Amino acid sequence: MKDCKNCGWDEHDTLVPSSAKTDIERLIAEANLARMRGDLNGAIDLCTEALDIEPHNADVHSLLGDIYKTMDNQTEAARWYQMALDINPNSKSDQAKLQEALAAASKKKRANSNSPTNNWLQPVDKLDRAIRYFVLFCAAAVMVLLIIGLTTWLINSRKENKAPTESPTPKTESVENVQSKTVSAPPVESPIIGEPEGGTLIRPLAEQTLLSKLATNPTIQQEKLVIEDVKIDPRTDGIEITMRFSDKPTALTHIVIRKAAAVAATAAYGASDDAKMVTVRTLVSMPGEYASGEPKLAHICDIPRDIVSVNISGADDAVLSRIFVKEWWNSEIGL
User: How far apart are CA 9 and CA 268, in angstroms?
Assistant: First the structure.
C-alpha cells in the first residue's frame, strides 16, 4: 500500500460510490461559481467539503490552487498544484500552473528581501542596534503620552459640557394632523436582473449547476456572451436564459442576435438532457438614449431541441427564423 505524502491518499483505493461522485461534481460546480463571484473563502470551504468525500480528487486540488492564485498566495497555490500532480502526474495544465506559481512566489520573495523596510531592523553593529532600539522606544513613549493626553482631555470636556436637561413634554397631535403629515413612501425600484429585492439570490442547485456550466462554456465565451440568469421550470422541463453581449457587436442586427440566442440554446441542451424547450431573453445596450442606462430587453424566443443539429455559424436568417418559435422584438430599440 502506497500513500501520498501530502494528502495521505491510498493509490490503490480508487473506487468512489456514484452518489459521492455526484456530490463532488456538485461541490466543484458551486466552488467554481463562488470563485467567479469573488467569494473565495466560500469556494475554499466547498473544496474542503469535497476533499472530505474524496481526498484524492486531482480536480479539487487544482481548483484550490487556482483559488489561492487568485488570492495572490502563490506559495499556497503551488502547494495545491503539487498535490494535484502527485495524484495525476500526467496533467500538463497542473504542471504549467505549478511552474508559474513557483516563479511568481520566488519573484515575490526576492522583492520582499530587497525591500528597505525589511532591512531596517538589521543593525550593522551593536551601537547601531542600540540607537535603533532607542528610537523605537522613544516613538512608543510619545504615542503612549499622546493617547493618555487625548483620553484625559476627552473626559474633562465631557464633564464640563454635561448639564442636567429637562426632557420636553411631547406634544400630542390629533389623528387628523398626523395623517395630514404622512408622506407616501417612494416607489420601490425593480431589482437587478438575477438578484432578489432582499439582496442575496437563493438559487436551486440545478440552476446553480446549469449557470456554472453555461458561464464556462467555451462557445459562449468565444461569442463574448454573458449569462445573466438561468431559470428551470420543472413543470414543463423548460429552461429560460437571460443573456447579453459582453462587448457591443460592430453591427447589431437580427441575424447577430438570433445566432447568439442559438449558441446559448445549444449550450443549454448540451448541459441538460431533460430540457424540452429553451427560452432565450437577449439584452442589448444601444447608442443614444440607451448608452448610459441599463441594458434593454431586445429579443425573446423559444428554441426547440432541433437547433442542436444546425450549423449555427453557417446558418442564415431564414433558417434560424424557421426554427425559432414565438419570437418577439422590442420595437422601441429599432433593430
Answer: 36
**Are 83 and 109 in contact, with CB atoms under 8 Å apart?**
no
Mean pLDDT of the chain: 80
CB 249 within 8 A of CB 195: no
- Domains detected in the chain: 18-113 (1.25.40.10), 205-329 (3.10.310)
**In the sheet that 238-245 helps form, which strands lie side by side, from edge to edge?**
225-233, 238-245, 277-284, 296-304, 325-329
38 vs 123, higher pLDDT:
38
- pLDDT, tens digit, 9 for 90 and up, residues 54-103: 999 999 999 999 999 999 999 999 999 999 999 999 999 999 999 999 99
Count the Cβ atoms, other than its own, within 10 Å of residue 93: 10
Rounded to a whole number of angstroms, the CA Rg of the chain reads 31
Instruction: Return the beta strands (E) in the chain as ranges.
Output: 225-233, 238-245, 277-284, 296-304, 325-329
- Name the one residue in this structure whose C-alpha cell is 493626553: 149
pLDDT over 50 (residue 34): yes
pLDDT band with cut points at 50, 70 and 90 for residue 223: confident
CB 270 within 8 A of CB 220: no
DSSP H or E run through 148: helix 126-161
**What is the pTM (predicted TM-score) of this model?**
0.40
Could you say which DSSP state residue 294 is in? P
- CB-based contact 275:268 (threshold 8 Å): yes
